[in-house]
Amino acid sequence: MRVFSDSDVRRLLTLDDCLAAVENAFRLHGERRCVGPASLSLHVDGGAFHVKAAVLGRYFAVKENGNFFDNAARGLPRIQGVIALADAENGTPLAVLDSVYITILRTGAATAVAAKHLARANAETLLVSGCGNQGRVSVEAIRRVRDIRRVWLHDVDRRRAEELASALDASVVEDFDEAMRDADLVVTCTPSRKAFVHTAHPGQFIAAVGADSSEKQEIAPELLSSSIVIVDDLEQCRAFGDLHHAPTVEPRATLADVICGTRVGRTSDEEVIIFDSTGTALQDVAAAALLYERMYERAS
Predict the structure, then answer these.
(1) At what angle do helices 158-168 and 133-142 cross, to 10 degrees?
(2) Pick the CATH number of 2-102+282-299 from 3.50.50.60, 3.40.50.20, 3.40.190.10, 3.30.1780.10
(3) Is 63 annotated as catalytic?
(4) Which helix (H) or strand (E) holds 24?
């Protein structure tokens, strides 16, 4: 059994690879050619453990991530975890992989895949709230699927926004609500526990990424009610996505169904579309399987 450290993952997995693998995983799921995804969350003092599992082709993967907000004071990453990869045909363990960078890349890839299928074709202004690793990867990924002319960054910690803006040739905005009025695409990837996105303008695409537990919230329920909602996984979004806070809202489709053409996504340039992204194990197994196969390609 092979062990992939964080440095192994960063060396072998690219964002372009992840984009293709994640889009294909959603397509296969829409065609009902996958098993899962399934998820479990356990809350403990100071944090939580999230477990996600799925089967994609000949691979099974289960990811365990611990999320502890006070870890910075301990000199530890806030999120740590592993992915266990096994042969889905006989149960043989194949690899254990550090999950942190995979999670960052596959989440950014899913955001970009959603933008590719749901944002207006002429969208060119991107606003990102939350300037950590996820914000950076979101910008890099969306630039691969849309002709982005302007990138605006917002964070409660202006220093972080300025550092990311310098690295990405972007601009920092002080007033998020004002920037919302002119942005074509919006990505929210914050740890917010209170909704801060209350309005949207016609044609806007919003990827809500931050709500990965029932306590977190970025999008106001009234905005979800007045918009078209697309989810990555309906059960997960009902349990702990932004949809969790708007239980009467009925999503139009899953992203998987939009990609494979069984359900419609955007029907006009006037629709406001919100992608509720909770992250699924299908994305994890797609990336882990790619890494495992790449290791053997290089060895041969």
Answers:
(1) 30
(2) 3.30.1780.10
(3) yes
(4) helix 15-30
The packing angle between helices 281-299 and 100-118, to 10°, is 110
Answer positive or negative: Cα dihedral of 220, 135, 122, 14.
negative
SS3 category, 197? strand
Catalytic position from the list 52, 63, 116, 216 = 63
Both structure tokens of 233: 């996984």
Query: Do residues 255 and 111 touch, judged by C-beta distance below 8 A?
Result: no
CA distances for 223 relative to 196, 246, 274, angstroms: 11, 10, 9
**Which of 5, 179, 147, 44 lies closest to 188, judged by CA?**
179
How far is it, in rounded angstroms, from Cα 79 to Cα 157? 19
pTM: 0.93
Measure the CA–CA gap between 186 and 218, rounded to whole angstroms: 12
pLDDT tens for the chain, 300 residues long, are 889 999 999 999 999 999 999 999 999 999 999 998 998 888 898 888 989 999 999 999 999 999 887 888 888 888 899 999 999 999 999 999 999 999 999 999 999 999 999 999 999 999 999 999 999 999 999 999 999 999 999 999 999 999 999 999 999 999 999 999 999 999 999 999 999 999 999 999 999 999 988 889 999 999 999 999 999 999 999 999 999 999 999 999 999 999 999 999 999 999 999 999 999 999 999 999 999 998 776 654
113: nearest Cα among 281, 296, 265, 242: 265
Q: Which helix (H) or strand (E) holds 54?
A: strand 47-56
CATH number for domain 117-279, candidates 3.90.950.20, 1.10.287.3510, 2.70.70.10, 3.40.50.720: 3.40.50.720
Q: Are 263 and 286 in contact (CB under 8 A)?
A: no
